[in-house]
Amino acid sequence: MSSDDNAPQGDSTPAHDLPDHVKEIAISMVSAYADHNRDELDHLLPRASDEVDDVLSELRVIGAFLGRRVQETGVVWKPADSREAVARTVAEMLPPELEFAVSTAWEAHSIGEEEAAERITQGDPMVYAHMLAAFCAAIGQAVYKRAELVSTLRQVSGLSE
Question: What's the confidence (pLDDT) of residue 81?
Answer without folding.
Answer: 85
